Structure formats: structure tokens, C-alpha cells
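Render Capsular polysaccharide transport system permease protein in 3D.
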Amino acid sequence: MQSAPAVRLIEVPAPARAARLRWRHWSLVGSFAVLVLLPAALAAWYLWTRAADQYASTVGFTVRTEEASPAFAFLGGLGDLSGASSSDTDILYKYIQSQELVRQIDSQLGLRHRFAGAPDDPIFALSPAGGIEALTRYWSRMVRVDYDPTAGLIEVEARAFTPGDAQMIAQAIFAASNRMINRLSDIARADTTRHAQQDLDDATARLREAREAVTAFRNRTQVVDPGIDIQGQMGLLTSLQAQQAETLIEFDLLRGSTRAGDPRIAQAERKIAVINARIEEERRKIGAAADGQDSAGGYADLVGTYERLSVDREFSETAYLAARASFDTAVAEARRQSRYLAAYMSPTLPETPLYPRRVSILLILVALSVGIWSILALVAYSLRDRR
């Protein structure tokens, strides 16, 4: 007969006691309420009860450079205007955010009064006591500029507390940008034509001096054109030389056919002497004396001086024509390449307030509060575990 198996007794642990909230638990809950729930409640109360509605007006534009086909492209190499619109839009992008534009629009529209139009909203409204620096900082909050450098497009969003104010600010920004582009265009035209105008002025002055020198020469010598005058003198000299040859022939014939003492021989000798004296006089006038040496003050000197003055005048006339053509070309280039501001989106008149974005602001604030609270809680528990 088998005996009954032995019974093993198992000790059962006592049931766990109910958990109790300790001080660290209450401090964690309290800190969550203070750091997260309370700021969220205050922010929600302010956003939905005190924060003023803001309306946004949008305007979009770009800088265009219109170029006509040149009618004198064969001249070439005379320079072009800087027609790249990207550099102009870069300037406008900075100009819209500048203190100069803020001051200009403030003098036109009274930005301080319009941006301080919500006295019950000290956070989102402008304090009227600030200077131009404070106004410029607030301007960067209320005016957003989006710029696409690839396409050269600028889109501006202007906010205000009334729809009309937002549209007026957007219109003022567009008008000021248009004036800036006109000013840049005027500067480009002036740069294009300035050097050509200087060259034209210099060429005109040289031509005037050359013509005045020719006129003074004619007044001093009483000779309009020494070349034409010397042709007449040379014709007279040739005629005298022909008469001289005929007279010499007649003289030789008389001397061979008549006896000595014939009065015709003496008459022929006097005629030959007169012709020789006249030939010598005419040679002195044209600068060639009987001995073949130049005579000072003769026609040779007049012709040399006149030719030098004529060459200077012709060179000055050629330089003037070239400078005038370059100037006309530069002016035509400046006229046919015109910049202008093209708006692809006119300033809009808003109907619904888009700002402040209450839900987004509240969610961001809650997220930041939760993050700060979590970091502080982790730091506190880490210090507690180190003890």
C-alpha cells in the first residue's frame, strides 16, 4: 500500500498596497499647470479677445526691359544699357525693406497712426512712442517680401488693421518701387550718353578752333584759297615766259638782219628787260626767286600754312562726324532700351482678416511650453536619482 504524497506549502506574498500620490507627483502636475496650461489659457484669452484682426493686401511685380531692334546694328561695339532685370529686382528687394522707404511712406500715409490703430492690442500693434528704427522693425513684421531671383518676380504682402489701409500701403510700395526703377533708368541713360557727350563736346571745340584758325589766316593774308590764287600766278608766269621766248626770237632775228644802231633793237632789248623784271617779280610772289631759293613771305609759305590748317580742319571735321554718330547712337540705344515696372498682380483689397493666425500661434506656444516643461521635469528627476 502506497503512502500519500507530501504537500508543499507555498508562501503567498501579501497584496500590494494602493499607490499614493506623493509630493513629487503633485509638483509635476502643478508645474505642468503653471508652465503649460496657464500660458496656453492666457494666450488663448488674449488672441480671441484682445488681438486685433489684420488684413493683408498683396501686390506682385517684376522689372521689364523692352528692347527694340537696332536700326544701325552695323555700327556695333558702341555699348549697351545694363538691361538685366535681376540686378534691378535685387535692388528693389532691399529697397522695400529699407528705412528710406519706410520714412517716405510714413510721410505720405502716416504709418505710425495706421499701425497704432489697435490700442487694446499692445502686442501686435505699434507703440506710437518709438522712433524710425522701431517703425522700421515693425515694418518688417507687417510687410513680407517674397523674391524669386530665377524669374525676377517680387511679391509683397502688406498688413494693416483695416482693409483700406492694407491696400493703400501696398499701392504706396508699388508707386515707390516704380519711382526707384525710373531713377535707375535715368542713371543708366546718363551713364550711357555721358562719355559720348564728352567726346562730342571735345570734337566740337577742336573743329571750332580749326575753323577759326583758317578764318584768321584768310583775314590776315587776304587770300581765300592760296591754291587757286597760285594757279592764276603760275598761268601769268607761263604767259610771261612765252612772251619772253617770242621776244628773244624776234630780237635774234632783228640783230641778224639789221645793222647796228637800229632803234628796233633797242626797243626789243627794253621789252626783254621789262619781261624779265616781271618774271622775277612773279617768281618772288610764288616763292621762287631767280636763283632758285625760297623767298620768305612768298606763296610757298602761304600754301604750306594753308595746307597745314586745312589738314587740321579736315581731321577735326572727321573726328566731329564720328563723335556725332557715336552720340546719336548712344542716345538711340538709351531710348530704345527702357525699364519699367510691370505688375502681374495689382494691390488687392482684402475682405477677410488673415492675421494673426490664432490657432497656429496657440499651437506653437503650447508646443514650446510642453517642451520646456518636459526638459525641466527630466532635469529634476535626474537630480533626484543622483541622490
